[in-house]
Amino acid sequence: MVVANWVRLKCRYGCKAYGKHLGCPPYSPTPEETRKVLEEYCMGVVARFEAVPDPAVPPQRLHHHLWGSIKAVHETIFQLERSAFLAGYYKAFGFNALPCTFCETCIPEEREGAVDPTEGRNCRHKDRVRPSMEACGIDVFATLERAGYDLAVLDSYSKGAALFGLVLLD
Protein backbone atom coordinates (compact mmCIF):
# COMPACT_ATOMS: atom_id res chain seq x y z
CA MET A 1 0.00 0.00 0.00
CA VAL A 2 1.31 3.40 -0.95
CA VAL A 3 0.22 6.32 1.23
CA ALA A 4 1.23 9.86 0.28
CA ASN A 5 0.41 13.21 1.81
CA TRP A 6 -0.23 14.87 -1.58
CA VAL A 7 -3.19 12.62 -2.37
CA ARG A 8 -5.65 14.51 -0.19
CA LEU A 9 -4.69 17.73 -1.97
CA LYS A 10 -6.44 16.27 -5.02
CA CYS A 11 -9.58 16.00 -2.89
CA ARG A 12 -9.24 19.46 -1.38
CA TYR A 13 -8.32 21.25 -4.60
CA GLY A 14 -10.08 19.47 -7.40
CA CYS A 15 -13.01 17.50 -6.08
CA LYS A 16 -16.40 19.20 -5.97
CA ALA A 17 -17.43 16.79 -3.19
CA TYR A 18 -14.72 17.96 -0.77
CA GLY A 19 -16.21 18.50 2.67
CA LYS A 20 -19.65 17.32 1.54
CA HIS A 21 -19.45 13.64 2.53
CA LEU A 22 -18.57 12.12 5.91
CA GLY A 23 -16.41 9.45 4.21
CA CYS A 24 -14.22 12.10 2.58
CA PRO A 25 -11.78 14.73 3.85
CA PRO A 26 -11.76 16.53 6.16
CA TYR A 27 -13.72 13.82 8.01
CA SER A 28 -11.75 10.77 6.85
CA PRO A 29 -8.53 9.47 8.45
CA THR A 30 -5.41 11.47 7.62
CA PRO A 31 -2.49 9.91 5.72
CA GLU A 32 -0.61 9.66 9.03
CA GLU A 33 -3.51 7.79 10.66
CA THR A 34 -3.82 5.57 7.58
CA ARG A 35 -0.12 4.62 7.69
CA LYS A 36 -0.49 3.58 11.33
CA VAL A 37 -3.58 1.49 10.61
CA LEU A 38 -1.98 -0.23 7.62
CA GLU A 39 0.88 -1.40 9.85
CA GLU A 40 -1.68 -3.55 11.68
CA TYR A 41 -2.68 -5.53 8.57
CA CYS A 42 -0.79 -8.14 6.59
CA MET A 43 -2.90 -8.32 3.40
CA GLY A 44 -5.74 -6.83 1.44
CA VAL A 45 -8.08 -7.79 -1.36
CA VAL A 46 -8.53 -5.40 -4.28
CA ALA A 47 -11.85 -5.47 -6.12
CA ARG A 48 -12.18 -4.03 -9.64
CA PHE A 49 -15.47 -2.72 -11.01
CA GLU A 50 -16.39 -1.52 -14.48
CA ALA A 51 -18.24 1.77 -14.12
CA VAL A 52 -21.24 2.30 -16.36
CA PRO A 53 -21.95 6.01 -16.90
CA ASP A 54 -25.45 7.42 -16.73
CA PRO A 55 -25.98 8.93 -20.20
CA ALA A 56 -28.59 11.31 -18.79
CA VAL A 57 -25.96 13.04 -16.62
CA PRO A 58 -23.09 14.99 -18.22
CA PRO A 59 -19.57 13.63 -17.53
CA GLN A 60 -18.61 16.98 -15.98
CA ARG A 61 -20.75 15.94 -13.00
CA LEU A 62 -18.50 12.94 -12.43
CA HIS A 63 -19.95 11.54 -9.22
CA HIS A 64 -23.53 11.75 -10.49
CA HIS A 65 -22.46 10.51 -13.94
CA LEU A 66 -21.12 7.33 -12.29
CA TRP A 67 -23.51 7.29 -9.29
CA GLY A 68 -24.98 3.83 -9.89
CA SER A 69 -21.55 2.28 -10.33
CA ILE A 70 -20.11 4.05 -7.29
CA LYS A 71 -23.08 2.84 -5.24
CA ALA A 72 -22.43 -0.75 -6.42
CA VAL A 73 -18.77 -0.46 -5.34
CA HIS A 74 -19.75 0.80 -1.89
CA GLU A 75 -22.37 -1.90 -1.36
CA THR A 76 -20.06 -4.67 -2.62
CA ILE A 77 -17.09 -3.55 -0.51
CA PHE A 78 -19.35 -3.44 2.54
CA GLN A 79 -20.60 -6.97 1.79
CA LEU A 80 -17.04 -8.25 1.19
CA GLU A 81 -15.91 -6.75 4.49
CA ARG A 82 -18.89 -8.29 6.27
CA SER A 83 -18.31 -11.72 4.69
CA ALA A 84 -14.64 -11.61 5.65
CA PHE A 85 -15.56 -10.67 9.22
CA LEU A 86 -18.05 -13.54 9.46
CA ALA A 87 -15.39 -15.89 8.05
CA GLY A 88 -13.12 -15.08 10.98
CA TYR A 89 -11.20 -12.07 9.68
CA TYR A 90 -12.41 -9.93 12.57
CA LYS A 91 -10.19 -6.97 11.61
CA ALA A 92 -11.59 -6.77 8.06
CA PHE A 93 -12.06 -3.17 6.95
CA GLY A 94 -13.11 -1.79 3.58
CA PHE A 95 -12.11 1.26 1.59
CA ASN A 96 -14.27 2.53 -1.25
CA ALA A 97 -13.79 4.58 -4.36
CA LEU A 98 -15.03 8.15 -4.57
CA PRO A 99 -17.60 9.77 -2.23
CA CYS A 100 -20.24 7.81 -0.37
CA THR A 101 -23.50 7.27 -2.26
CA PHE A 102 -25.69 5.70 0.42
CA CYS A 103 -27.63 8.99 0.70
CA GLU A 104 -28.61 11.37 -2.06
CA THR A 105 -27.38 14.22 0.14
CA CYS A 106 -24.96 13.82 3.06
CA ILE A 107 -25.22 15.79 6.31
CA PRO A 108 -22.45 18.34 5.50
CA GLU A 109 -24.02 18.98 2.10
CA GLU A 110 -27.45 19.49 3.67
CA ARG A 111 -25.95 22.03 6.04
CA GLU A 112 -24.15 23.73 3.15
CA GLY A 113 -20.71 23.66 4.65
CA ALA A 114 -18.24 21.84 6.81
CA VAL A 115 -19.61 20.39 10.01
CA ASP A 116 -17.90 19.41 13.22
CA PRO A 117 -16.23 15.99 12.79
CA THR A 118 -18.36 14.63 15.63
CA GLU A 119 -21.36 15.02 13.29
CA GLY A 120 -20.25 11.67 11.87
CA ARG A 121 -22.20 10.08 14.69
CA ASN A 122 -25.37 11.36 12.99
CA CYS A 123 -24.61 9.61 9.69
CA ARG A 124 -27.72 7.78 8.48
CA HIS A 125 -25.59 4.82 7.34
CA LYS A 126 -22.85 4.79 10.00
CA ASP A 127 -22.79 0.98 9.92
CA ARG A 128 -22.06 0.89 6.17
CA VAL A 129 -20.12 4.01 5.21
CA ARG A 130 -16.41 3.51 4.64
CA PRO A 131 -13.88 6.09 3.49
CA SER A 132 -12.51 6.10 0.00
CA MET A 133 -8.90 5.06 -0.44
CA GLU A 134 -7.93 8.46 -1.80
CA ALA A 135 -9.70 10.24 1.06
CA CYS A 136 -7.29 8.53 3.46
CA GLY A 137 -4.19 9.40 1.45
CA ILE A 138 -3.80 6.07 -0.35
CA ASP A 139 -2.14 6.62 -3.72
CA VAL A 140 -4.51 4.36 -5.63
CA PHE A 141 -2.52 4.45 -8.88
CA ALA A 142 0.79 3.50 -7.26
CA THR A 143 -0.85 0.88 -5.04
CA LEU A 144 -2.63 -0.78 -7.95
CA GLU A 145 0.45 -0.67 -10.18
CA ARG A 146 2.37 -2.45 -7.41
CA ALA A 147 -0.41 -5.05 -7.39
CA GLY A 148 0.10 -5.63 -11.12
CA TYR A 149 -2.66 -3.52 -12.65
CA ASP A 150 -1.89 -1.63 -15.85
CA LEU A 151 -3.54 1.77 -15.47
CA ALA A 152 -3.90 4.87 -17.58
CA VAL A 153 -5.29 8.32 -16.87
CA LEU A 154 -8.61 8.85 -18.63
CA ASP A 155 -9.33 12.02 -20.55
CA SER A 156 -13.10 11.47 -20.24
CA TYR A 157 -15.51 9.36 -18.21
CA SER A 158 -18.09 9.29 -21.00
CA LYS A 159 -17.13 5.74 -21.95
CA GLY A 160 -16.83 4.48 -18.39
CA ALA A 161 -13.96 3.78 -16.07
CA ALA A 162 -12.57 1.14 -13.78
CA LEU A 163 -13.28 1.72 -10.10
CA PHE A 164 -11.47 -0.06 -7.29
CA GLY A 165 -12.22 -0.92 -3.70
CA LEU A 166 -10.08 -2.55 -1.04
CA VAL A 167 -10.72 -4.79 1.95
CA LEU A 168 -7.90 -5.08 4.48
CA LEU A 169 -7.49 -8.45 6.18
CA ASP A 170 -5.30 -9.93 8.87
Explained architecture:
The structure is a single chain. With 170 residues, the chain is an alpha+beta fold. It has one domain. The chain is built from six helices and three strands. Strands 1-3-2 form a three-stranded antiparallel sheet, covered by helices on one side. The longest helix has 20 residues, at 67-86. The radius of gyration is 15 Å and the shape is globular.
Shape: globular
Measured between the Cα atoms of the first and last residue, the distance is 14 Å
- The helix fraction, in percent, is 25-40%
Strand content: 5-15%
Structural class: alpha+beta
Number of strands: 3
Task: Report mean pLDDT, rounded to a whole number.
Answer: 89
User: What is the C-alpha radius of gyration, as a whole number of Å?
Assistant: 15 Å
Largest sheet: 3 strands, antiparallel
| Neighbour order of strands in the largest sheet | 1-3-2
SSE run: HHEHHEHHE
Q: Count up the helices.
A: 6
**Uncertain parts:** none
How many domains?
1
Task: Lay out the secondary structure.
Blueprint: H1 7-12, H2 31-38, E1 43-51, H3 62-65, H4 67-86, E2 93-95, H5 107-110, H6 140-146, E3 161-169
Antiparallel strand pairs: 1-3, 2-3
Condensed summary:
The protein has 170 residues and is α+β, with helices and mostly antiparallel strands.
Kindly list the characteristics that best describe this protein.
6 helices; 3 strands; 170 residues; alpha+beta; globular
